[in-house]
Write a structure and sequence with these properties.
Length: about 300
């Protein structure tokens, strides 16, 4: 008699209940903000024409960097690394190469069972809004199931990328958020925050910084009249756990680059709010850069998010 781990049996129950929703290989979370970290949970709903899956390979698209796959019990994990088409900034470091392909092999996932394969990474701020496919191949005893199409019977699993402003309510002060502010070679645009409850102790701020010059700069501080303190923060995956940390050394803004402060990634953090942030209003925040100096920019207050990391 074949025995399967309890976790796998539980996964089968989920698959049976889900039905047609899992007809194709897909991600558990189908959307993400540009510039944010992302935990990719790849769902494998079935095998190849009734045969068990013995290998899963995912090709990493350009623009999804600092990829870290999770080992899968009973499977062998292998990665292919290579140079990026462009460099990316993360934690104050410049990344020029990384994982471009992940393969889990040597296991056996029966056709009637469901399982998940996990990896994390970050979406580059330079990516455009829209679908980003991750071509995936299932290998079985006598063949393969290739998921690499834009549509049709074999669509590639994809993540729908949204701009940092996508979560704002249509009445949340778009005119203030849309007007860019210039400081030397720097352009700051799209600033917004989220409405807070009365007596809420903290809030967040998000915006985009474009460096149109030839010299690197760095965002080193922020301040606001409506909060006792403002800090530069980052949400990032560490050992499969999303954590928030203060960036004491600031946020690099390389020459010719665009840096996005967005929910789930880099952001401003406001502590000891002196007043609630009210949807539809606009607040002002002062940003200080290492070379360019200081500038005050507007943040339009959008509706409260359905969920938050803070």
């Amino acid at each position: 008699m074949i025995r399967f781990p309890a976790r796998l049996l539980a996964a089968l129950s989920i698959a049976c209940l889900s039905g047609p929703a899992f007809a194709h290989v897909s991600f558990e979370t189908g959307s993400a903000a540009i510039g944010a970290g992302y935990k990719a949970v790849l769902r494998i709903p079935h095998g190849c024409d009734g045969q068990a899956t013995t290998s899963v390979t995912v090709k990493i698209p350009e623009g999804f960097f600092d990829v870290r796959p999770m080992p899968h019990a009973g499977w062998t994990l292998e990665t292919v690394t290579g140079p990026y088409a462009q460099s990316y900034q993360l934690h104050g470091k410049t990344l020029t190469e990384g994982v471009t392909e992940i393969t889990w092999s040597g296991g056996e996932l029966p056709d009637a069972f469901y399982d998940e394969f996990v990896f994390t990474g970050t979406f580059a701020p330079s990516l455009a809004a829209g679908p980003l496919p991750f071509p995936t191949t299932q290998t079985c005893a006598d063949g393969q199931q290739v998921w690499d199409g834009a549509s049709g019977a074999n669509p590639a699993p994809r993540v729908e990328l949204t701009a940092a402003m996508a979560g704002m309510d249509e009445h949340a002060g778009h005119s203030a958020a849309a007007a860019p502010v210039t400081l030397g070679d720097l352009e700051i645009s799209g600033g917004f925050s989220r409405a807070t409850l009365p007596n809420a102790p903290t809030g967040g701020g998000f915006l985009t910084i474009t460096n149109k010059g030839d010299s690197d700069d760095r965002l080193v501080a922020a301040s606001a009249d409506f909060a006792a303190e403002a800090q530069l923060h980052e949400m990032a995956m560490e050992n499969d756990v999303m954590k928030m940390r203060q960036l004491a050394d600031g946020i690099p803004v390389p020459a010719g680059a665009t840096v996005t402060l967005a929910p789930g990634g880099l952001h401003l953090m406001f502590f000891q709010l002196k007043q609630p942030l009210v949807e539809g209003q606009t607040v002002m925040v002062t940003l200080t850069f290492e070379k360019a100096g200081s500038v005050t920019v507007p943040l339009a207050i959008a509706g409260a998010a359905a969920s938050t990391h803070h």
